[in-house]
Amino acid sequence: MDRPEIDGGRADIAVEVTNAVKTFRRAGRTITALDRVSFLVHPGTVTGLIGPDAAGKTTLMRLLAGLLLPDTGSLHVLAVDVLRHPLKVQGTIGYMPQRFGLYEDLTVKENLDLYADLQGVPMQERPERYGELMKMTGLGGFTRRLARDLSGGMKQKLGLACTLVRAPRLLLLDEPTVGVDPVSRRELWSIVYRLVEQEAMTVLLSTSYLDEAERCQEVILMHEGRLLGQGSPKSFSSQVEGRTYRVHVPTMDKRALQQRLERAPGVIDAVIQGGDVRVVMKEGVDADSRQLLPDIAGVCVSPVEPRFEDSFIVLLRQESDLRTTASLDLNAVGASGRQEDVIIVNELKRRFGDFYAVKGISFTVRQGEVFGLLGANGAGKSTTFRMLCGLLPLSEGKVQVAGQDLRRAAARARSHIGYMAQKFSLYGDLSVHENLHFFSRIYGLHGKHQRNRVAWALQEFELSPFADAPCGQLPLGYKQRLALAAALMHSPEILFLDEPTSGVDPLARREFWHRINDLAEGGVTVLVTTHFMEEAEYCDRLVIMSEGLILAEGTPEEMKERFRTAEQPEPSMEDAFIALIEGAEGVRSVS
Amino acid sequence: MSKVDPRKAFRHGFAMRMRGMIRKEFLQIRRDPSSIAIAFVLPLVLLLIFGYGVSLDAQHVPVAIVVEAPSPATRSLTAAFGNSPYFRPVDFSSIQEAEDALKRRLVDGIVWVRSDFAENLLSGETAPVGVVVNGVDANNARIISGYIQGAWLTWLEQYARDQGRPLSSAVSLEHRVWFNPGVRSRDYLVPGLIAVIMTLIGALLTALVVAREWERGTMEALMVTPVAAREILIGKIVPYFFLGMGGLILSVVMAVWLFDVPLRGSLWVLFLASTLFLMTALAMGLLISTVARNQFVAGQVAILSTFLPAFILSGFIFDIGSMPAVIRGVTHIIAARYYVAILQTVFLAGDVWNVIVYNGLALAVMTVFFLSIVKKRTRKRLQ
């Protein structure tokens, strides 16, 4: 109408995507990464592109940066047609790819110089700009350090500084907070806000952390290549306004309560939070304690604020009713009935050269417990994990797993444990059935017993429809199921899960924890590492690790209780984590 | 604001971007020992192996000499073998012992001087000497038997002259080997090796470093800056061109001063041909990197498609003239072939213009061909 138009794009819009379709061909199959996606981003806002892995976030970012061409549809960035003038667009935007795009063998200063040269920043403007960026990122003291020697959080900030070296009008950040500890995540967000306020920048940022949605002014929610909705985080959570409650039953174990509520009539979602369970009800259904838990006395139901994640779950449930209500056949999993502590770790240390990745930690895990190891990347949790599984020799200390001393009988200890690795370690070219067959065989199963276990896994994990499909082509949630099934083939007493849910969508994550709860109920001990703070809520007990040391140990409630203050009456797990880390750093800087 | 000529501004931006790209590449080369290793250590090792270790000449070959009836004539014959640089004679008194030694590979051949040697020699009968050669290595066997034959004829001629009698054969052959009178294989292996080294630096190194940028995600970050696709290409070609020329200088210095390979042609011809070939190799490396986006695949493809052909089909070791016609045809698309021809000519023969011009033109065509494909294939796109 009367809006000014340049090059077919509207001048008052920062990003305009119209009917973008992008498909990839992989191994003879066509994968639709983006399916008719349209949206607008207004200038001067922080817009979050939110969705689980394979939602199409990175593809969309790359299309906007002119790195990929859409099959059909049009894209305009700052009123310039990206398809026709990619170089012009690239001259006005800043883009940080997933791994920050840093040259590891260049120093902080050299990385900045390179990007300043490429962005054409005049020499006389550099000292001032560098000064600002170093102040903003706190990297001022490290300009001569090689990028490879920086911590994950510092790399992320250097990556950001490099994209900001010539102040762009639009900043595209592709999953900037992945694998970065909560403290650095919080710092990144404060930088982003400052950019929008002081430099009038528009920021489009993708993330798979749903809790980050609430930090954006505008949210674009994506799932499997489609756009599920756009609006302010409030507009999403208001869709479930008045439908979210906290259920408190003092006499019931939190996991048992969650399992009950999940199956209760009218409940869309039930997750553990603190010692209670948070539920989302169907529209028009009241959360009446007699309806929810008719046979239990002392049930206390109170309304709570809706969250972004609630509306996402509701939207996803409308699309597919992927929900497991069936319990695992508990007779088929390997509970030992051992009453003592099944994992005893005493003064465990691990040294690589002269660097201690684990600096002397001790904890015990009881049978049937879900025990969490929390920490940012580099905290030493994966190293600890590998030692407990007998994959990495200990440098010092003592570890007992399932009654076996790891120093003397690592192989025997291993036969009692199931291990699910990060990224799932499945054979992508083998079918689901072949993978199960292979993993059961390497655990020594054969004959009728093996056939029974494979059949059990296909049925219990609802994998039968995909039995003959190559597992590399399964959606992430199914790969995760298969990996769990493979780790359970030999009925282990202890299950080790290394970052089991990173990248999967919240529905698949709930389903996964449902099964883990069943296993724990059946007496299987579960040890899990995670950097998702909200997942810590599922653990009975946990330790928080930082720089090879345990900072705190206890139940999730105890952890949060320690940081309850007047300003923060309801601290989240993340608040507790940040307070702990900052406390530890304070002590270190004093000493 | 002052008036800025846009064309000048563009040139300024171009210069700044190129400076950034090239400086970055040199810093990486300096900090990453693997590129230095490929550019300088690998040539060193290859030259040492081929210069000292690998020799296609037979020298100091252990040969059993069986003399059944010693006489002045046999003594003089044994002495002739002993004085030759090609043989290390070992004396045996019976053919059985000598055969035993041959089977145990203590000797590579047997010269059997039978008991009737002296009589036959005096009576003018021919071939009184029996020769047995271990034929397991056919090539070696041919060389050894040729040497023995040569040594025998030389001795026979000398002996006849000493005895004041003309040789029974009427025609005597006189060999004259041009350009490499000593027939030292090192003299043609070392120049040819330079082509292999330049292929490694040019194609393997560039394919690897570009693949590394893909692996680490830096390529994606580069592509979103205002740098143009051709500037990314130049930013890779310039540093590795200098590195390659460094490798060339090292190789030439080692060839001339360490291995005493003559350099009969002009240095400028050598450098011009090397420039052309290095550009082709760099373009091939960059072409590989447009397809192979991880270092493992890039390394495999580079070795299979550039290094091996340069090794086998360039005429560096295996003579192109004696290849089957089909393979001979294939060698025409191997750039190293033309470069090896120029190198061997410039080192051993001098400036033989028809050879240099023909092969130089072929190299120039290949350079233009590969560079234009790379230019065409390189887009600032991830797909």
Number of H- or I-type helical stretches of chain A: 18
The value of Rg of chain A in angstroms is 25 Å
Give the structural class of chain B.
Answer: alpha/beta
Coarse shape of chain B: elongated
Query: Segments of chain B where pLDDT lies below 50 for 5+ residues?
Result: none
For the residues shown, what is the average pLDDT of chain B?
Answer: 83
Strand order of the largest sheet of chain B: 2-1-3-4
What structural class results from the helix and strand content of chain A?
alpha/beta
Helix content of chain B: 55-70%
- The appropriate CATH architecture of the domain at 5-231 in chain A is 3-Layer(aba) Sandwich
Counting structural domains of chain B, the number is: 2
| SSE topology string of chain B | HHEHEHEHEHHHHHHHHH
Would you mind describing this structure in some detail?
The complex is a heterodimer of chains A (591) and B (383). Chain A has 591 residues and is of the alpha/beta class. In chain A, 31% of the residues lie in helices and 26% in strands. Chain A is built from 18 helices and 26 strands. In chain A, a hairpin with a 2-residue loop joins strand 6 (72-77) and strand 7 (80-81). In chain A, helix 3 (108-118) runs parallel beside helix 5 and helix 13 packs across helix 14. Chain A is globular, with a radius of gyration of 25 Å. The termini of chain A are far apart. Chain B is α/β, with parallel strands linked by helices and 383 residues long. A 4-stranded mixed sheet of chain B has the order 2-1-3-4, sandwiched between helices. In chain B, strand 1, helix 3 and strand 2 (87-92) form a beta-alpha-beta unit.
